[in-house]
Task: inverse folding
């Protein structure tokens, strides 16, 4: 998952299912402005494989949230 930050700050990047439930926590730290990359291995917060389907990468920075649709295939 590639993302760019317009300014430095505390970033939280999570994966949510179609119902809005948090499935995985990918990033929760202070980061600099600019381009960044992380990956999701398709596992939930308990280490279990998630089902194929539609998920959302939710990026939070400074009170703003952006979402990007992800499709997990098996």
Result:
């Amino acid at each position: 998952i590639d993302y760019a930050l317009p300014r430095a700050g505390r970033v939280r990047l999570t994966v949510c299912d179609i119902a809005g439930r948090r499935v995985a926590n990918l990033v929760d730290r202070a980061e600099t402005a600019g381009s960044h990359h992380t990956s999701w291995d398709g596992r939930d917060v308990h280490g279990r494989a998630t089902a194929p389907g539609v998920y959302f990468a939710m990026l939070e920075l400074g009170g703003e949230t952006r979402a990007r649709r992800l499709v997990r295939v098996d």
In short: The chain has no helices and six strands. Residues 10 and 34 are 13 Å apart (CA to CA). The chain has a mean pLDDT of 96.
